[in-house]
């Protein structure tokens, strides 16, 4: 078996790889920052001891129950080197094509384009579907979001997720 | 007794492909069912990007849609694969996670809404295949899809189910076959359309998804692609366009299942808004379902487009 750790700024991903004959089974778990602790699997699989400890040194993930204490890779003492493969906490970068993002994120809360509106009316349908639009006069979720205050300026009544890094 | 459903249109269908919205109302009406709109609905939201970026906010939006649908007392019929997955998962989460439900209801209360478990979220494909049945569709067919050999693309979100993916593929194939269309078998029928990948890198999506997928489809002899997902439809059309920009000749019409069924029920291809498609769906429909004289007129126009050519 082997364990891989990947630091994605907003979270750390632990990948547990197991050889099953000619196949490799990979189990994945995520630790959202600032969480740094997870359970050790050494009681179930003693071979994990060194790998977990290596991840502790390089990434700063603490494995509760791992018996190994002293540094294996990094020098002992206060050398100023701490978890060299760990990245500063941040957010996930999602690169999205602007046009597609517009379709995906705002499709139901904007008006139809002129071309589509023309086709819709030609088919005997309303220019726009009965969606909740940003300019709607009544009370609606989209308006709540714009004037919300509290834990999250965009998400009234909701707490930020741990490790969002925002 | 008339079956009645509250219909969830999503964003892609009414804003990009109103032909699907129109076909949905017509098809279900012909089959003895009535669809009621859901006034004031919002984005489902999107099952990939939205939930990845903002999971808690996404749950509020889903819960709002579900709470409004619950007021109607009818099943919520969803026309889009992605919306279906989002709403089913939100329903499952909220029904079993009291903490999430309380948080969500704290927000919904500002609008006088409350989410309560029990909304039955139905995919239109499941409804057509299981509540209504292929045989009922077959009985309503007045213009068989003669000469149509279609590759069916089920779409990832419909495959994520307790059922075996192959059973989900068969559902779509059985409904398409009920129109008289021949079903083309191709090895990559469960490969993703590439939409999520394309939002990050068009090059990656074209090279690793669209190209092998279209190769497989064209090799099967299909002259059309049928899908039940509007986003897959958009992507398969846009992906072919991206392939053409890279010098690959391909232009297979991509048609939504509801459009296919309505055409076979006698829908007029000239009056469906099919011109909004990026692939030659309108020409294809006129050729196969239009009036004889119209079909002849369009034969020249569609020559070389219908069926797509090769992908290399």
Distance between the termini of chain A: 36 Å
Shape type of chain B: globular
The total beta strand count of chain B reads: 8
Strand elements of chain A, count? 5
Description:
The complex is a heterodimer of chains A (166) and B (312). Chain A has 166 residues and is of the alpha+beta class. Chain A is built from four helices and five strands; from the N terminus they run ββββαβααα. Chain A has helices spanning 48-59, 98-106, 114-122, 141-146; strands at residues 2-7, 11-20, 23-32, 37-39, 62-64. In chain A, a hairpin with a 3-residue loop joins strand 1 (2-7) and strand 2. By secondary structure, chain B is of the alpha/beta class. Chain B has two domains: 3-125, Glutathione S-transferase Yfyf (Class Pi), Chain A, domain 2 (Up-down Bundle), CATH 1.20.1050.140; 141-302, Rossmann fold (3-Layer(aba) Sandwich), CATH 3.40.50.11810. Chain B is 54% helix and 10% strand. Chain B is built from 16 helices and eight strands. Chain B has helices spanning 12-16, 18-30, 49-53, 55-72, 81-96, 98-108, 124-132, 134-140, 156-159, 165-177, 195-200, 202-219, 230-245, 257-264, 281-289, 292-302; strands at residues 3-8, 33-36, 75-78, 121-123, 149-153, 182-184, 224-227, 254-256. Chain B has a four-stranded parallel beta sheet, sandwiched between helices. In chain B, helix 13 links the parallel strand 7 (224-227) and strand 8 (254-256). The interface between A and B is large, with 44 and 52 residues.
Q: Keywords for this structure?
A:
heterodimer; A: alpha+beta; Beta Polymerase, domain 2; 2 domains; 3-stranded antiparallel sheet; 19% strand; elongated; B: 312 residues; Glutathione S-transferase Yfyf (Class Pi), Chain A, domain 2; Rossmann fold; 4-stranded parallel sheet
Structure, briefly:
The complex is a heterodimer of chains A (166) and B (312). Chain A is α+β, with helices and mostly antiparallel strands.
């Amino acid at each position: 078996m082997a364990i891989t750790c990947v630091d994605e700024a907003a979270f750390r991903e632990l990948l547990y790889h197991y050889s099953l004959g000619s196949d490799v089974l990979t189990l994945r778990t995520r630790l959202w920052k600032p969480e740094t602790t997870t359970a050790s699997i050494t009681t179930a699989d003693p071979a994990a001891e060194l790998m977990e400890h290596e991840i502790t040194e390089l990434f700063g993930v603490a494995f509760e129950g791992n018996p190994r204490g002293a540094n294996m890779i990094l020098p002992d003492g206060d050398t100023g080197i701490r978890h060299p493969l760990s990245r500063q906490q941040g957010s996930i970068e999602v690169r999205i094509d602007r046009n597609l993002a517009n379709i995906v994120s705002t499709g139901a809360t904007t008006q139809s384009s002129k071309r589509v509106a023309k086709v819709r009316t030609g088919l005997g349908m309303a220019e726009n579907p009965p969606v909740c639009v940003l300019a709607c006069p009544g009370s609606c979720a989209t308006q709540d979001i714009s004037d919300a205050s509290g834990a999250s300026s965009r998400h009234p009544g909701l707490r930020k997720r741990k490790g969002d890094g925002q | 007794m008339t079956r009645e459903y509250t219909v969830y249109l999503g964003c892609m269908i009414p804003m990009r492909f109103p032909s699907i919205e129109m076909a949905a109302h017509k098809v279900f009406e012909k089959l003895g069912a009535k669809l009621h709109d859901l006034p004031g609905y919002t984005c489902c939201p999107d099952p990939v990007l939205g939930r990845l970026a903002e999971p808690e906010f996404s749950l509020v939006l889903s819960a709002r849609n579900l709470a409004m649908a619950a007021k109607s007392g009818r099943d919520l019929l969803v026309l889009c694969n992605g919306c279906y997955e989002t709403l089913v998962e939100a329903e499952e989460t909220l029904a079993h996670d009291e903490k999430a439900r309380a948080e969500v209801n704290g927000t919904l209360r500002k609008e006088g809404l409350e989410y309560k478990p029990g909304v039955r979220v139905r995919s239109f494909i499941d409804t057509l295949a299981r509540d209504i049945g292929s045989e009922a569709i077959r009985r309503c067919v007045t213009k068989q899809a003669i000469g149509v050999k279609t590759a069916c693309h089920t779409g990832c979100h419909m495959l994520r189910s307790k059922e075996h993916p192959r059973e989900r593929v068969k559902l779509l194939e059985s409904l398409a076959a009920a129109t008289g269309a021949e079903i083309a078998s191709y090895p990559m029928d469960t490969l993703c359309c590439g939409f999520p990948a394309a939002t990050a890198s068009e090059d990656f999506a074209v090279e690793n998804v669209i190209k092998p997928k279209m190769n497989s489809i064209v090799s099967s002899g299909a002259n059309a692609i049928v899908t039940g997902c509007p986003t897959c439809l958009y992507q398969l059309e846009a992906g072919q366009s991206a392939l053409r920009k890279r010098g690959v000749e391909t232009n297979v019409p991509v048609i939504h299942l509801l459009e296919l069924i309505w055409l076979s029920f006698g829908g007029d291809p000239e009056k469906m808004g099919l011109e909004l498609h990026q692939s030659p769906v309108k020409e294809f429909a006129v050729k196969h379902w239009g009036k004889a004289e119209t079909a002849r007129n369009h034969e020249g126009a569609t020559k070389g487009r219908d069926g797509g050519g090769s992908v290399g």
